[in-house]
Write a structure and sequence with these properties.
alpha+beta; 3-stranded antiparallel sheet; 5 strands
Length: 165
């Protein structure tokens, strides 16, 4: 069992978050949590919450991208879609079609590549749709100053504040 005191475990890539040949591109980007979160948010177009595919220049046959599970494959697909730096703004059609899991996997990949202890959390969110408990995946990062894990919703706007935090 991994203990909270073994933070190096959470700062090390896993099979899911390993960026493969894209590690250098991550190394070249800013390493602040705000920059990492912003970059991760720009890499995915949410298949349900992002809006209409066609209106955003996304072909309906791209729905299969939702099944991309590993960061290296996600980053390879993003490279095919635009070849942009990870920190550059992307049109919706240049983003991976995905869901909260994909925002989280990419956030974890970027954070861990910069040595930030980060982990995924799965649960039910009440802040996405009033009156509903929506299954949701978010990240947590270790806050050294407060000696606790802090919630990071990589897909949520900067001004989103979880009332429970």
């Amino acid at each position: 069992m991994v203990r909270v005191t073994d933070l190096s475990f959470y700062a090390t890539q896993s099979r899911v978050t390993e960026p493969g040949k894209f590690a250098g591109a991550i190394d070249d980007m800013p390493s602040s949590l705000a920059d990492i979160r912003k970059a991760a948010r720009e890499l995915v177009f949410h298949y349900r919450a992002g809006g209409d595919y066609a209106e955003n220049g996304i072909a309906a046959d791209r729905i299969a991208e939702i099944d991309t599970r590993y960061a290296d494959a996600m980053l390879a697909r993003l490279d095919q879609l635009g070849g942009l730096r990870l920190t550059e703004a992307r049109k919706p059609s240049q983003r991976l079609l995905g869901c909260c899991r994909d925002f989280t996997v990419l956030f974890l990949t970027l954070a861990r590549q910069h040595g930030v202890p980060a982990r995924a959390r799965v649960g039910f969110a009440t802040y996405l749709e009033a009156g509903w408990y929506v299954d949701h995946v978010v990240a947590e990062v270790w806050d050294e100053g407060e000696q606790r894990w802090r919630l990071v919703g990589a897909e949520l706007a900067d001004d989103h504040v979880d009332p429970a935090d």
